[in-house]
Amino acid sequence: MAQLLDIQSGDRLLVSRTDRLGDLVLALPVVETLKARFPGCDVDVLASLYASPILENNPCIGRIVRVQNDQLVASRHYRKELEQRIRKRNYKAAIVLYPERNISRLLYRAEVPVRIGTAGRFHSVFFTHRLLHSRKANKKHEFEYNLDFMAYFSDGVTITRPAVYPTDKELRNAHRIIKECGVDGPFVVVHPGSGGSAERWPMAGFVELYDRLSRNRRVAIVTGSDIEGEEVRTVASERGVVLKEVTGRTDLRTLAAVLSLATVVVANSTGPLHLAVAVGTRVVGLYPGLQIMSPVRWGPVGVGHRVLQPEVAQCRCPAGHCRCMETITVEQVAEAAEAVYDDVIGKQT
C-alpha cells in the first residue's frame, strides 16, 4: 500500500498531461478530485499548447502551464525557461499522468520535492514515487488508470466524469454560428475527423449518415478542421448532398460550446468525442476492433451513450488502414444516433 503524502492547505499541486486532447479530457477527474479533497490547495495543470484551452474557465484549476511539445524536444533554452517557471511555483507535488521523458526530467531539475509517475521506464528514475501499473492490457477505462495515482493521497470525494466549462460568451458565439447555418432547434453534430489519433469510419459513411438523418427530419451539422471540411465537401458534392457545416470556423473552446448545444454527437474515437461528453452531450462513438483502441479503455464516460464496432473478433488490419471500420453500416450508425436523439428529446418534453 502506498504511503500517503502529507498535503497541507496552501500547498501547490501540479498535474501533468501533455499529450492529446482526449487524453487531457480524461485527466480532468484527477484534477477535480484533488481540488475536492484539498480545497485549500492550488491545483495547476501542465498541458500541451494545443489541448490546453479546454482547461480554461475550470473553477478547480489554479494555473494552466502550457507546453509547446515541439520546442520541448528541440530547444534547450525552452526547456530551461519552462523549468524556471515551474521552479518559481514551489510545487509540493507533481503527478505525471503521461510520463514523457523531457517532462519527467524537467520536474526533477526543477526540484519538485514529490514527483509521482509510473514505474518500469528508463526515465522513471526521475520520480520519487513510482506507481506499479500497466495500461497495455486495457482492462479498465483511461480515467480510472489516471485515478490510480490518487493512491498517494488521502481518501475522499472522487470525481469520475470529466467536465469542460464553456463561458457565456462562447455559448452566445456558438448559438450565432449555428443560426447562421439555418439551424434553430435540436440538431445532431456529425464530426468525421480523427486528427490522426484513431482509426476512422470512411468519410463517405459520414456523408451518407448526414443525408439519411436529414431525410428522416433530424437536422445535422458537420464540424471539423479546415482540411476535414475540404474532404467532406468534396465527398458530399460527388453524392449531391448539400451540407450544413461549420468546419474551420471553431477554435477548441467554440467547438466545445457548439457540442454542448447539440442533442447528440456522432464521431470517431477521438478528442472531440470526449469533449462532447465533458460538456454534457450524449455521443455515438465509432471504434475499431483493435485492443489498443478498445472502448473499455477509451469509450465515452457515463450513461446514455452508444458505441459501435466492426463485427470481428479482433481486427488485424495494419495501423492507420483499418478496413474493418467499413463494415459498420450507415444504417447501424443512423439507428443509434436517432435512438439517442429521440431519447434526449423525449426527456426534454
Can you give me a brief rundown of this structure?
With 349 residues, the chain is of the alpha/beta class. It contains 13 helices and eleven strands.
Give the SSE map.
Blueprint: E1 12-17, H1 21-25, H2 28-37, E2 42-48, E3 64-67, H3 69-74, H4 76-88, E4 93-96, H5 101-109, E5 114-118, E6 129-131, H6 142-147, H7 168-180, E7 188-191, H8 203-215, E8 220-222, H9 226-238, H10 252-261, E9 264-268, H11 271-278, E10 282-286, H12 295-298, E11 306-308, H13 330-348
Helix pairs in contact: 4-5, 7-10, 8-9, 8-13
CATH class of the largest domain: Alpha Beta
Shape: globular
Q: CATH topology of the largest domain, which one?
A: Rossmann fold
> Span between N and C termini?
50 Å
CATH level-two architecture of the largest domain: 3-Layer(aba) Sandwich
The oligomeric status of these chains comes to single chain
- The CATH superfamily of the largest domain is known as Glycogen Phosphorylase B
Number of distinct beta strands: 11
